[in-house]
């Protein structure tokens, strides 16, 4: 059979991303969730602080609080101990000239005090505290609103909420926030050769790994994903699965059937159901890709080989899903590393070879080939922790040369 891909102009990854980004818009819909359920969600509305943070002047260390007006910082001095300010239990008296209070981290600093000295630099002498010369004054007092002032923005819309943001909201007394609703996604594999885990393999059959890869990549608070199983090479079944999924999901992702084989019905089916384009992308692995719309659902048809599924999802589908959920575009982290094993490559496509990235004691990065680079080789993918990015016009790289490396995120 002739490989039609080899006779068609290939679309660059950048061009594919740009076309997809120009087509889609963030999903509508907002829901209010409490902080324990907000981790990883995208903020739908800006949040302002209802109070000053810190709310009171408080101590940054354990020690003694006093007024710098009562001392000569360059001479040893002695102050009478007037009481204690505990965290949550402020000193109730009025601090007088020549007095200090024992204070603990986070405790309210008396209004007459402007300095806290760490306890290590002071000594107790009965009811007095003795301080050495050259004690730094006007330090270790956290002022009201020095972090955030009442009415200031804590976070803007479009922010992905992490653990620190949840803590920030909690410190301002905010219990719930408005977030973008999750993107609903249906995914399934196609092909008569696929059989479920635990089932015996007949000649020519393989276990379906793609749904487990996608399930892991879609395990994210941004998404609400549904695994629709395996659809065989049957046009009617495929039409029904796509039509039903489009009724209740924002996105449909399939694996397999996006190439030009005689049994790849998906192109024919898509032509009858919606507006879908089949592109040949100048990337390896993952040349065939289908993108378009079925009803109100965006459609992504990925290749059938499992490594190609992972690469095309991360490089093309994930940026589109970020846009749908309302996140700003984000380029993946790439660093330079010295290649320790020679790499083979043919000119013509941008390659994402799987590698093992290390760092030596001096902080220098090195990367080696992780093993077989076939798009079916999951074992080598599992052994790797990064992609080695080889440009389209590259014809191979000898050991010792610098290369761009894209470290894996935790999803892989």
Q: Any idea of the CATH class of the largest domain? A: Alpha Beta
How many alpha or pi helices?
7
CATH architectural category of the largest domain: 3-Layer(aba) Sandwich
CATH T-level topology of the largest domain: Molybdenum Cofactor Biosythetic Enzyme, Chain A
User: Would you report the number of β strands?
Assistant: 26
Strand order of the largest sheet: 7-4-6-5-9-8
Instruction: Specify Rg, calculated over alpha carbons.
Output: 31 Å
Considering DSSP H and I runs of 4 or more, what fraction of the residues is helical? 10-25%
Task: Enumerate the spans where pLDDT stays under 50 for 5 or more consecutive residues.
Answer: 1-7
Number of domains: 4
Look at the structure and give the mean pLDDT.
91
Structural class: alpha/beta
Please indicate the percent range of residues in DSSP E strands (runs of 2 or more): 25-35%
Query: Major sheet, described briefly?
Result: 6 strands, mixed
CATH homologous superfamily of the largest domain, by name? MoaB/Mog-like domain
Distance between the termini: 35 Å
Shape: elongated
């Amino acid at each position: 059979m002739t490989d039609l891909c080899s006779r068609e102009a290939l679309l660059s990854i950048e061009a594919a991303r740009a076309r997809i980004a120009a087509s889609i818009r963030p999903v509508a819909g907002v829901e209010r969730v409490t902080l324990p359920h907000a981790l990883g969600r995208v903020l739908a509305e800006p949040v302002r602080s209802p109070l000053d943070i810190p709310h009171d002047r408080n101590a940054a260390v354990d020690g003694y609080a006093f007024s710098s007006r009562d001392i000569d910082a360059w001479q040893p001095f002695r102050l009478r101990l007037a009481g204690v300010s505990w965290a949550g239990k402020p000193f109730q008296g009025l601090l007088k000239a020549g007095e200090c209070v024992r204070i603990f981290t986070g405790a309210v600093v008396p209004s007459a005090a402007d300095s806290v000295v760490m306890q290590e630099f002071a000594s107790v002498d009965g009811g007095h505290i003795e301080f050495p010369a050259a004690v730094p004054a006007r330090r270790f007092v956290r002022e009201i609103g020095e972090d955030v002032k009442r009415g200031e923005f804590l976070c803007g819309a479009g922010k992905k909420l992490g653990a620190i943001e949840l803590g920030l909201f909690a410190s301002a007394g905010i219990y719930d926030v408005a977030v973008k609703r999750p993107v609903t996604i249906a995914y399934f594999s196609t092909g008569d050769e696929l059989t479920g885990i635990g089932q015996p393999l007949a000649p020519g059959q393989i276990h379906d790994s793609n749904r487990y890869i996608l399930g892991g990549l879609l395990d994210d608070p941004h998404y609400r994903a549904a695994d629709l199983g395996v659809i065989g090479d049957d046009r009617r079944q495929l039409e029904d699965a796509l039509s039903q999924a489009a009724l209740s999901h924002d996105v449909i992702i399939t694996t397999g059937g996006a190439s030009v084989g005689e049994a790849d019905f998906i192109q024919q089916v898509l032509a009858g159901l919606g507006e879908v384009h089949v592109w040949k992308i100048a990337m390896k692995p993952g040349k065939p890709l289908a993108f378009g719309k079925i009803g109100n659902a965006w459609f992504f048809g990925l290749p059938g080989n499992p490594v190609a599924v992972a690469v095309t999802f991360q490089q093309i589908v994930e940026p589109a899903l970020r846009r749908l959920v309302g996140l700003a575009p984000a380029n993946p982290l790439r660093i330079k590393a010295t290649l320790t094993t020679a790499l083979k490559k043919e000119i013509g496509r941008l390659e994402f070879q799987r590698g093992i990235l290390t760092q030596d004691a001096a902080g220098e990065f090195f990367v080696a080939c992780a093993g077989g680079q076939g798009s079916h080789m999951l074992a080598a993918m599992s052994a790797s922790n990064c992609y080695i990015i080889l440009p389209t016009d590259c014809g191979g790289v000898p050991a010792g040369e610098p290369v761009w490396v894209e470290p894996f995120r935790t999803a892989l």
